[in-house]
Amino acid sequence: MAWNLEFVRFPAPDGVNGWWESLPPAPPAVAVTAERHYDWVVVGGGITGLCAARRLAELAPDASIALVEADRIGRTTAGRNSGFFVDLPHDISSESYSRSVEADKADVRLQRHGIDYVRSVVKQKGIDCDWQDDGKFHASVNRKGHAALTHFAEGLARIGEDFEWLDEAGIAGVTGTDFYESALFTPGCSTVQPAALMRGLAASLPENVAVFESSAVRGISDNGSAKVLSFANGKLIARRVVLCTNAYAATFGGHPNGLLPVYTFASMTRAMNANEVRRLGGTRSWSLIPADPMGSTIRRLVTDRICVRNHFAFRPGLEVSQADLTKAKSLHRRSFERRFPMLEDVELEYTWGGPLCLSVNNGALFGRRSDGVFEAVGCNGLGLSRGSASGKLIAEYALGRDNDLIRQLLNQPHPRSLPIRPIADVAVTAAIWMKEFSAGAEL
Ligand SMILES: Cc1cc2nc3c(=O)[nH]c(=O)nc-3n(C[C@H](O)[C@H](O)[C@H](O)COP(=O)(O)OP(=O)(O)OC[C@H]3O[C@@H](n4cnc5c(N)ncnc54)[C@H](O)[C@@H]3O)c2cc1C
């Protein structure tokens, strides 16, 4: 049956991505400029699409595959995050990241599957992306935060996961700041330079994958025998399509699909000089998550820069304004000064935002969308590990494989629908505001 799928929201330059800017210039993009035929087209060059294209190529080495990205691979959300490949439960809508024992165990299994897959590619292909298996700290600034960490630790104990408590002096010895009261160290998290990882994953794809960037799919139609993907300057004709467009897949109006594009923001300092490094103290590199999911995520990088992430904003039009970026930068500056008063001269060099794809019930879309069209969409804030897993597994599913993890993803809840706009806008914005307000000192 003939049908059409129209794309209405495209990636916009939401601030300046510090990870991308600190890499050498990317080689020129190869864009879609003619009509070409492929067995498979994967839409979206984030972590999910990169893993889907790789896995298709591994399992079907004779198939021709195209991966298409509207912007540059590494410059969009998958290359503009804080770089945490989180293995443990991380439900950012819960006050302590945990859910039930069963749900937490299932999340850990899936997330480790994704991390193991990407780590093996990074090692095998020698991708230079500062991949570190050094774990993460969950830190609290007051009693409320400590109570949340205690709850999280109880959840970890229930599912048999390791952790270690640090007191105020212990976490100060790592971070150089006496801002935090206590912390939980969990060893399984990996961290990366995300833009370098995405570029490296794209550059090392198997030979049967053609990569097109600066090529936004405008629409897909089914002419009965193939899918026709249209671009500004060309067409790709495919037997099968895999959609990995995350927040850009959110729909509103008559048929809302329950996916919520919620932006979060980050800033990166300039590199500290030797004097500033000495004044800060602590260890050379560390990665810290706040006790309250709405608080500030902080990383100290081997490049002697510090990265701060906080603040959320519901932006259904998938664009942030200059006012959003100015507000985010001032919140980041305040968080930075509270933690690092000894670094008052260290400026925030870059500030940017990117869309998460959330849903009110932590649901996501995975599986067959229509004949010959598959989708893996809905990162729920944890796209690095979950996106790696769901990208790999959607390729396996589309090729007819079956396993426990595929079934787990097929059985996850669909994103719950929302009230129509503008009621949804008001409800989501108010919920974010209340949660941020309650995070208080953790910001
Ligand atoms: C500041 C910040 C910090 C974060 N920190 C973390 C973290 O530490 N750990 C973590 O796990 N997650 C983090 N996230 C979330 C994480 O970045 C996302 O979950 C992840 O990027 C999702 O990957 P994805 O491939 O599914 O989607 P995306 O990365 O959004 O990729 C989708 C791609 O599809 C492309 N696209 C969309 N429409 C089209 C079209 N019509 N044609 C062609 N291409 C199209 C987009 O340009 C985009 O590149 C953070 C996000 C932000 C913004």
Helical segment count: 11
Q: Which CATH top level class fits?
A: Alpha Beta
Output the CATH homologous superfamily: FAD/NAD(P)-binding domain
**SSE-based structural type:** alpha+beta
Distance between the termini: 52 Å
Keywords: Oxidoreductase
GO molecular function: oxidoreductase activity
Pfam family, one: DAO
Protein name: NAD(P)/FAD-dependent oxidoreductase
Structure description:
This protein is α+β, with helices and mostly antiparallel strands and about 450 residues long. It has one domain: FAD/NAD(P)-binding domain. It is about 30% helix and about 25% strand. The chain is built from 11 helices and 19 strands. A hairpin with a 5-residue loop joins strand 15 and strand 16 (about 305-315). The mean pLDDT is about 95. Bound molecules: flavin-adenine dinucleotide (FAD). Flavin-adenine dinucleotide (FAD) binds near residues 44, 78, 83 and 381. It is an enzyme of class 1 (oxidoreductase). Keywords: Oxidoreductase. This is NAD(P)/FAD-dependent oxidoreductase.
Layout of helices and strands, plus pairs?
Blueprint: E1 3-6, H1 18-21, E2 35-43, H2 47-59, E3 65-68, E4 84-85, H3 101-125, E5 136-140, H4 143-158, E6 164-166, H5 168-175, E7 182-186, E8 190-191, H6 194-203, E9 209-212, E10 219-222, E11 227-231, E12 234-243, E13 260-269, H7 274-280, E14 286-290, E15 297-300, E16 306-314, H8 322-339, E17 348-358, E18 365-370, E19 373-377, H9 383-398, H10 404-410, H11 423-439
Parallel strand pairs: 2-3, 2-12, 3-9, 5-14, 12-19
Antiparallel strand pairs: 1-10, 4-8, 5-7, 6-7, 10-11, 11-12, 13-16, 13-17, 14-15, 15-16, 18-19
Helix pairs in contact: 2-9, 3-9
